[in-house]
């Protein structure tokens, strides 16, 4: 993994992006006589070709082709994703052609899309075949055999990420309740460095929570680090591989000394500019949809179109969030807040669809303009649930150190939350965002949000 503006990105995903830009640029240049009118010099050729390559990569990213779980797809699945991506790219390029002089797309000009699609398919076959090779597999030894060690094994088995890693064994530490298969326990007669060399381990992950007892192998871990075998804390491992800060393996010192948490004036100014630009652009683009949604809500039951609800914002300040009403007027007759559930009977027919497509969230652009919310950030929760969750989940209040958002990392990586357990799982993504937030990460989340809206993922 590599870090770009504090965010962890797979080396293979980054290499794939660069390779696809190159092959798309090559396809555009090779077919230039078919889609560029007249004869052009190099300076007039490369700008339209670069625009084509960037638009196609953006289209593929919007439809999820660079998501962290795409490296396990077969040829058929990859082809099914390329086709709609290139259809979207074709539409975008036709719109853009009006702004780039000398560009035309017709029967002959479509050759560039055929060449580009074939080149992307070939590039993905080469990269993904290489990524799944055992030579590219990262081998880990985990120190500890408790619950966190088991989570490391489950993460490896879940096939999340562009590159695979394998847990070759666990080194038990006295004082932990074993939660891993006994067949994966490594012998204690060898030093950690000797074990790492015997099993060709690329990294050692420390999952032990209590490191103050005499059984914790501090000297042997130092020997490994000096011997060229990287040693990583479990919290850093999950942050790097899953974009999560795991609460169950988190030490307060990790948050204090681990870096990140950029709250500088420059970051605040950049984020505010991004909020206003993104919200303004989406408001203009979604205005017809918002008008239709408001009309449908009004016609369905004659009730109010908008719904205001008190939420907890930055520094635990309360504010009124604005949404399209998606539930019946008597949704909470007893006055007691309730979690939204799957197939919630309180949701109206119109509400079902505007929730599924996230249209009900669009009025929150007004909260962004007022400065109460950001476009990207942890989703704001009701004070009633915040009081409960702060008492049940450690570090839950950390998410209130920045403005809440209309969309966020938890919203694009995890399904709709409707319980304390869901809140815990989403908090792990929120903590990652709070720690590593940047304009780069905001843009990635915005692109992923488009896919969530298009395919109705996570809506209830």
Highlighted features:
460 residues; alpha/beta; Rossmann fold; 3 domains; 4-stranded parallel sheet; two-stranded antiparallel sheet; 17 helices
Describe this entry's structure for a reader:
The protein contains 17 helices and ten strands. The protein is of the alpha/beta class and 460 residues long. The radius of gyration is 25 Å and the shape is globular. α1 packs across α3, α1 runs antiparallel to α5 and α4 packs antiparallel against α5. The protein has three domains: 130 residues, no CATH class; 106 residues, NAD(P)-binding Rossmann-like Domain (Rossmann fold, 3-Layer(aba) Sandwich); 191 residues, no CATH class. The longest helix has 37 residues. The model has no long low-confidence stretch (mean pLDDT 83).
SSE string, helices as H and strands as E:
EEHHHHHEHEHEHEHHHEEHHEHEHHH
The helix/strand class is alpha/beta
Q: How is the main sheet built? A: 4 strands, parallel
Uncertain segments are: none
Inertia-based shape: globular
Distance between the termini: 34 Å
- The fraction of residues in strands falls at 5-15%
Number of helices: 17
Helix proportion range: 40-55%
Rg computed from alpha carbons, rounded to a whole number of angstroms: 25 Å
Mean pLDDT: 83
What secondary-structure arrangement, pairings included, does this model have?
Elements: E1 2-4, E2 7-9, H1 11-30, H2 32-35, H3 42-62, H4 75-97, H5 111-131, E3 138-143, H6 147-157, E4 165-171, H7 192-198, E5 203-206, H8 218-226, E6 231-233, H9 234-242, H10 252-257, H11 265-301, E7 306-312, E8 318-324, H12 349-356, H13 365-369, E9 374-376, H14 383-392, E10 405-407, H15 409-413, H16 420-436, H17 439-455
Parallel strand pairs: 3-4, 3-5, 5-6, 9-10
Antiparallel strand pairs: 1-2, 7-8
């Amino acid at each position: 993994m590599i870090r770009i503006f504090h965010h962890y990105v797979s080396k293979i995903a980054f290499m794939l992006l660069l390779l696809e830009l190159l092959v798309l640029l090559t396809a555009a240049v090779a077919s230039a006589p078919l889609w560029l009118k007249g004869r052009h010099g190099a300076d007039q050729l490369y700008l339209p070709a670069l625009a084509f390559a960037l638009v196609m990569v953006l289209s593929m990213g919007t439809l999820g082709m660079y998501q962290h779980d795409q490296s396990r797809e077969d040829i058929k699945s990859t082809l099914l994703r390329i086709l709609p991506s290139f259809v979207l790219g074709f539409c975008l390029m036709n719109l853009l052609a009006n702004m780039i002089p000398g560009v035309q797309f017709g029967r002959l000009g479509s050759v560039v899309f055929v060449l580009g699609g074939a080149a992307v398919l070939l590039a993905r076959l080469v990269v993904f075949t290489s990524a799944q090779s055992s030579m590219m597999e990262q081998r880990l030894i985990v120190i500890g055999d408790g619950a966190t060690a088991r989570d490391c094994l489950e993460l490896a088995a879940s096939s999340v990420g562009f590159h695979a890693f394998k847990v070759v064994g666990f080194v038990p530490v006295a004082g932990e309740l074993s939660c891993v298969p006994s067949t994966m326990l490594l012998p204690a007669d060898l030093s950690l460095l000797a074990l790492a060399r015997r099993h060709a381990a690329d990294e050692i992950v420390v999952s032990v929570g209590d490191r103050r007892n005499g059984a914790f192998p501090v000297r042997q871990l130092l020997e490994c680090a000096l011997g060229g075998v990287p040693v990583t804390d479990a919290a850093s491992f999950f942050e790097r591989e899953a974009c999560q800060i795991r609460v169950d393996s988190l030490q307060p010192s990790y948050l204090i000394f681990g870096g990140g948490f950029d709250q500088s004036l420059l970051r605040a100014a950049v984020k505010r500019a991004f909020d206003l630009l993104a919200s303004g652009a989406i408001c203009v683009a979604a205005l017809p949809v918002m008008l239709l949604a408001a009309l449908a809500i009004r016609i369905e039951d004659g009730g109010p179109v908008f719904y205001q609800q008190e939420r907890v914002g930055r520094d635990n300040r309360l504010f009124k969030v604005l949404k399209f009403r998606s539930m019946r007027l008597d949704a909470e007759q007893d006055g007691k807040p309730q979690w939204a559930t799957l197939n919630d009977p309180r949701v109206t027919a119109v509400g079902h669809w505007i929730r599924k497509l996230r249209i009900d969230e669009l009025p929150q652009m007004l909260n962004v303009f007022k400065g109460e919310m950001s476009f990207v950030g942890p989703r704001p929760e009701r004070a009633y649930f915040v009081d409960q969750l702060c008492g049940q989940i450690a570090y839950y209040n950390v998410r209130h150190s920045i403005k809440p958002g209309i969309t966020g990392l938890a919203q694009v990586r995890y399904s709709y939350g409707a319980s304390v357990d869901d809140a815990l799982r989403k908090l792990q993504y929120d903590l990652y965002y709070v720690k590593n937030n940047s304009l780069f990460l905001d843009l990635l989340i915005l692109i992923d949000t488009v896919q969530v809206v298009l395919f109705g993922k996570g809506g209830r």
